[in-house]
O-antigen ligase-related domain-containing protein (Actinoplanes auranticolor), 471 residues
Amino acid sequence: MTLVVPGGSGTASTRAAGPAHSAPVRRPTALPAWPLASMLAFYPLWWALGLGVLIFPLMAVPMLVLLLRRRAGGRPVLLPPGFAWWLLFLAAVVVSIAALGADPSGTVAEPASGRLIAVVYRLTLYASLTVLLVYAGNLTELELSRKRLVKLLGWLFVVTVLGGLLGIVAGRFEFTSPVEMLLPHGLRSKGFVQSMVHPYAAQIMDLVGGEKPRPAAPWGYTNTWGNNFCLLMGWLVVAAGASRRGGVKLFAVLCLGVSIVPAVVSLNRGLWIGIGVVVLYVAARYVLMGRLWIIAAVLLAGAALVVALVATPLGDTVNARIDNGKSNGVRSFLIERAVDGFAESPVIGYGSTRNTIGGRNSITVGESSGCERCGNFTVGGNGQFWQLMYAHGAAGTLAYLAFFGYGLWRFRRDRTPIGIAGSAAIVSSFSAMLWYNSLATPLVFMFLAYALLWRNELEATRSGGPAHESR
C-alpha cells in the first residue's frame, strides 16, 4: 500500500505483508595512492619510455574519476585554500586565447591556428596539474601519508642528482624511446616533441668556450633540471631527518655532498642563486624560532663549499661561467620584448609566446641548421614571470602570484619540517620565475609542496592541536 508521510511532500510505498526494506547505505569511497605514488616513484621509467611529462595528463584522468566517485559516494572533495585565485588564473589563460591571432611588433607573423598546439599543451597541463593538486590534498594519512609523500619527493632529488652525474660522465647519451618510435617522423623530429619523448642525458652548449654537456636528465632541459634541484632538495633533508636509521641520514649527507658536482658543472647560475635563496630562507625561519645553531651550520656548510671550490677544478668552472655571460644579452633582449608586449596588451596578454623577428642585434639574423640559437628567440620563454605577463597579461600574472603568495601567508606559522621545506620550495619558485619556466615538472613540485602544507593544516585541525607546533 502507499502511505503519505505526515508533514512531508513525498510518499512511501511498502508491501502489506512483506518486511520493511531499509535504504542502502552509501559508504565513503577511499582514494588509492597509486595514481600519485606511481607517477613519482617510477618517473625514471616514464622518462625512459618516452612519456616524461605526458604521464601527468595521463594520470589526471583516473585521479579525476576517483575524485568524482568519492564525491558521489557521499564524501566531500576539499579544495585548497586560495583556490579561487587559481581558478581565476585558469580563466585568464582561457580568455587570453582570444588574442592568439595578434602579431605584436617585432614578432614573427603567424596565424592563430599555428600557435594553437602550444596553447592546448599548456592548458592541458594546467588543468591536469590542478587535478593533481586537489587529489594530493584530499588523500588521507591512511591512503598516502605525508611522510611517504615526502620520501617520494626526496627520492626524486636522488634521481635528479643521478641524472646530473649521468649528464657529466655521458653527456651525449641518448636513445629512442618506445613512445618516440610510435610517432610519425615529421612530428618526432620537432625540437619541442623531442624534449618530451626523446630521453637524453644533457644539453650540449657552448657557454664557457667549447661545447660542454649540461645535465638535463630526467627533466628534459638543463634549466628545468636546475629548477627541480632547488624544489626537491629540502625534501631529502626532511625525509632523512624523520628517519631513525643512521644509514639513511648518512646517505642523505653524502647525496647532498655529491650533488655539488653536477650543480656546479651545469653552469646554471639560476640554480646557484636558488640554492642560496633556499638556504637563507630556511636559516631565517630557524633563527626566528630561536634555533640559533642554524647559523653555525650554514657557516660550516659554506666553509666546506669554499674549500671544495678552491681545492678542486669546480672553482675554475664557476669562475669561467661568471666571466662568460653569453646569455645575459639574450635575456635582457627578451625581457625588453616581454615588457613592450605587455604594454600593448596589458590586461589579457597574447594567449601564448611569440618568436622574435631576427635576433637582438639584427632583424635579419635567424635560426638556421648551422646556428640554431642565432635568432627567432621565444618571448616568454626565459622565465615564468615574463611568460605570464606576455601571454596572460596582468589578470593571469596577478592571479598566479596571488595563489602562491596566499599559500605562503596562510601557512606562515607552520614550523614543522614539512612546513618549512614546503614554504621554502614556494619561495624558491618565486625567485626562479625570473629565469625559469614552470611547466611542467616544477609546477608539479610546487603544487605538491602546497598540498603538503595544506594537509599539515588539515591534520592539525583534526587532531585539535595548533598547526604551528614542531613535530
